[in-house]
């Protein structure tokens, strides 16, 4: 299979580098990352329990800074959610058999499907990744990729993509309930991301008082909105997922906390902001998620990031 990985940040570099062990991969990257990868390849490092045995891995994907007019069996989109529309515009000038979104937040698949003439699959990734420097990505935790049809149900294209990921040594599940899984993921992110970002703490902080109550309330509010949107996600399942992810990634810095620490725009609109918007449409109040959204947006505005 040949694949384009659109967005060579932390997760894109990790997934692209792992896929390149087995497939013909082109990374669409920013200039500094493209320069480093074309000069020295991509180094994937990792330390810690379970991770150290798998790495270092050196892989040599092709790399470009121009995402237009590309052709491949698969495009994997790993850009930040606020860059999805730009990625969709670039991908629409190329040709692909399938597009897979491996991004945070909700709404990315719809944005891609509106522009790109190829079936769009939904996916989630629980691998921990941190771009240490151009050309060097650290795997901070082994996880899995779950992918499938964005509206749920069986998909032969998803099966084919799943086999290609598994052949590259990426732990992969092909699922027929992606809408529920995406809502569960957003409930996890709603609990962990803004709280750890605003308090400059690692993910494990949400397991303890006083952050625990805040994170649990944000997760519960999100699960309620999911149910109102027709997705069967109980409070109990959402809370268990949030706390399991926080425990498994206790020493990791969430993507939103990484963004705040680096003075970068966050994905608040596609995570907490999405929950607030769907709640408003369905007549629900989500005071904790709304407050977290306002705090992060205020921080972004103070730095001219929005
Ligand atoms: O997806 C994540 C993120 O950081 O965005 C979690 C699950 C919180 C892991 O860090």
Automatic annotation (TrEMBL):
Catalyzes the NAD(P)H-dependent reduction of ketopantoate into pantoic acid. Belongs to the ketopantoate reductase family. Residues 180-298 form the Ketopantoate reductase C-terminal domain. GO terms for molecular function: 2-dehydropantoate 2-reductase activity; NADP binding. InterPro entries: 6-PGluconate_DH-like_C_sf, 6PGD_dom2, ApbA, Ketopantoate_reductase, KPA_reductase, KPR_N, NAD(P)-bd_dom_sf. Pathway: Cofactor biosynthesis; coenzyme A biosynthesis. GO terms for biological process: coenzyme A biosynthetic process; pantothenate biosynthetic process. GO terms for cellular component: cytoplasm. SUPFAM superfamilies: 6-phosphogluconate dehydrogenase C-terminal domain-like (SSF48179), NAD(P)-binding Rossmann-fold domains (SSF51735). This is 2-dehydropantoate 2-reductase. The keyword NAD does not apply. It comes from Natrinema salifodinae. It catalyses: (R)-pantoate + NAD(+) = 2-dehydropantoate + NADH + H(+); (R)-pantoate + NADP(+) = 2-dehydropantoate + NADPH + H(+). Keywords: Coenzyme A biosynthesis, NADP, Oxidoreductase. Its EC number is 1.1.1.169. The lineage of its organism: Archaea, Methanobacteriati, Methanobacteriota, Stenosarchaea group, Halobacteria. The keyword Oxidoreductase applies. Residues 4-151 form the Ketopantoate reductase N-terminal domain.
